[in-house]
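Box S1 | Example of a co-folding query
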Amino acid sequence: MQTKATEFDQISKNIFYPIYPVIAQQILAERKGISEGTCLDVGSGPGYVGLSIARQSKMQVCLYDMDQNALEIAKKNINEALLEDRVFVKYGNVEEIPYPNESFDLVTSRGSLFFWQDKVKAINEIFRVLKMGGTAYLGGGFGNQKLKDMVDQKMLAIDDQWLVKAAMRKGCADDYENLLKKTIVKQFTVKEDDSGLWIVFHKTSEPTKEQH
Ligand SMILES: C[S@@+](CC[C@H](N)C(=O)[O-])C[C@H]1O[C@@H](n2cnc3c(N)ncnc32)[C@H](O)[C@@H]1O
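Box S1 (continued) | Returned holo structure for S-adenosylmethionine
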C-alpha cells in the first residue's frame, strides 16, 4: 500500500533531494564549526535532513517522528547511507520528547512544525532537551531561491495546487514571533529569506521558575 510516508519519500528522493545538503550546511553554520555532539531531527520523515547533517559532521543523529511508516523508510535510508553507527530512529511526538533534559546539542526540524497540534508545548520541549549552548533550527524551506524554483516547477507538474498548499502551510514571520513569545524561549531569531522561514535559538540560560 502507498502510505503518506512512502509518497513523501518518493517526492524527497526524486524532487527535493538537492535541497537537503544545502539546508544541512545552513544549519551547521549556526554551530560555528562545532561538528561533534548529538542532534535530534524532529519530524524527520524519511530522514534526509538528519542524514545530510550526519554526512557533513561527526554528529550522532536521532531521526524522531510520530509516523512509524516514515521511520521504517528512515531505517532503510540509514542503511543505504551506511550510517548505522551514527544515525538511529526513535518514535514519538514532539510535544513529549522521551529524553532527559539537556540531551542534544542541536535540534532541527524542517517541514514539520506546521503540523504540530500544540506548538508552544512542542517548542518548550525542544528547549528542555537542548543542552546548554545548544542550537535549535526549526521551520521550513528549500535551501535557496534557485532550488525553490526547481522544486516549485517539478511539484506543479504533479500537483497544480502545490503553491497554494505550500503558502498555506508556511505561515509568516509575525506568526512565528508571536508563537515564540508564548514559550519559555526568551532569545530567538525568526529569519525569512531565500532559505525559507526559520526559527533559530541558542540555549544560553535556564528558564526562570515562573516560566516552567
Ligand atoms: C512533510 S514531512 C517532513 C519530513 C522531513 N523533515 C523533510 O523535510 O524531508 C513532516 C513530518 O513531520 C512528522 N510530524 C508531524 N507532526 C509531528 C509531531 N507532533 N511529532 C513528531 N513528528 C511529527 C510527520 O509524521 C512527517 O513525517
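Residues 54 and 83 are 8 Å apart (CA to CA). The two ends are 44 Å apart (CA to CA).
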